[in-house]
Amino acid sequence: MTKSKELHIFFFPLMAPGHLIPMINLANLFALHGAKSTILTTPKCTSLIQNQINRFHLSGHCINLLVLSSSAKGNENLTSPELSTCFLKAMDDLHKPFDQALKEHQPNCVVTDMYLPWTQEIASQNSIPRLLFHTMGYFALSVIDTLDNHATNGCVNVDQDEMVMVHGLPHLLQMKKSQLHDTVFTRKKFSEFMESVTESELRSHAAIVNTFYELESQYADHYRKKIGRKAWHVGPLSLVNLPSPSQINCLERIMTWLDSKQLKSILYICFGSLSHPTKIQLEEIAHGLENANHHFIWVMRPTEEDVQEKGILTEQGKGLVIKGWAPQAEILSHSSIGGFMTHCGWNSVLESITRSVPILTWPMFAEQFYNEKLVVDVLGVGVKVGVQEWGMREEGKEVIGRDVVERGVRRVMDEGEEKQRLGERVNSMKEKARRAVEKGGSSCVEMERLMQEICAWRS
Ligand code: UDP
């Protein structure tokens, strides 16, 4: 402990909520273990992060912020799932300031997001060990590795009905071809980017994974022993999270509304920070919800018109609609929440499980279809709404009809055997998650060993 107190660690997140939130929690976890944690950011993103870390300061822990002197104009803030040219250009502009920061401060180690592969080279030129931070779990990482190598490992067959069978993992994985990103079968520009991510992982000292052993033990073993990657799991990091400051818009009104409802009677709906279902899809969801006749809280991204004219919180029928940023972790922690319709972003999955909330899966892009497989087929803590196509819900693409939505909602929310079974399974997993981060738990032990290893690199 005395040695680790002197450790100085840099954290460099990707500027998107699903990457930033767990990275800040990770920086806090290191601070709790006695390290000096410094988060790197850009001038445009400073206030966003400052608000988050103020919460830790209030609790007596110190996380520092280092603003890179960059001319980036905000394009480094990822607001859509695509890695746009503007975003990649903004990343290029950060190479030099990142290099200067390492030279000036000489941290003992730098933890950078998986999607910042270029940080590996700069860290190694400065002889500073780099740890890569994965914002997905071992299950998804193992599937991606198998699919990436399918041409050479013969683990993938596609049958006439376009069903893809993936062998060689702890479970046989079966998915429709339409549920996979097209880069699995055709090389595209994005494939090159993902190759650079893998290459940077192989060159880094190790990876940190936001998960806990008991959640996906077979895949933790598969990833570390069979694939042979060095990785530490120290999550779920959402359990390091602190309550949001009361300044969050409408927090009090939301809590009062939740307080007025019965135990586990409300469905929470949110598709993450980057997804925008089409208008026609939103209408089908609205009808499905109405027909299922359960209370709900639905988070929608606001249009400009919404912000100017309608405010952000409205009651509609049996629901509360939040247009804008919702205090998701707080909502999921409330005892009246009985289900979560989610796009299966990894943070949302973990937040749901650690709050003992069964999941209704609505995957859209990235690794979300693999997360759905884990949630439904492996862990049994959720049911599928039944999405068949990978991709954002652009006009002309698959629309999930109101009857299908209603059926999914009823399976998770109607009283009966299925709700009870899901509830028991997710509750048991929640208990395991809490034990994992306690003293002596699997993630806590990993974290202590990781700290020792970083200390050893220094001496
Ligand atoms: N989130 C939130 N309020 C919102 C939308 C998202 O607090 O209105 C948080 C959510 O709790 C999670 C993160 O943003 O921590 C989203 O990450 P996830 O991996 O679930 O999805 P992504 O946004 O990366 O697709």
UniProtKB/TrEMBL annotation:
Under the heading Pfam families, the entry gives: UDPGT
Stored InterPro entries: UDP_glucos_trans, UDP_glycos_trans_CS
Provide the coiled-coil residue spans: none
Any idea which GO molecular function terms this record carries? UDP-glucosyltransferase activity
Assigned EC number: 2.4.1.-
Instruction: Please give the CDD domains that the UniProt record associates with this protein.
Output: GT1_Gtf-like
**Keyword line:** Glycosyltransferase, Transferase
Instruction: Report the family membership.
Output: Belongs to the UDP-glycosyltransferase family.
Q: What is this protein called?
A: Glycosyltransferase
Q: Which organism is it from?
A: Rhynchospora pubera
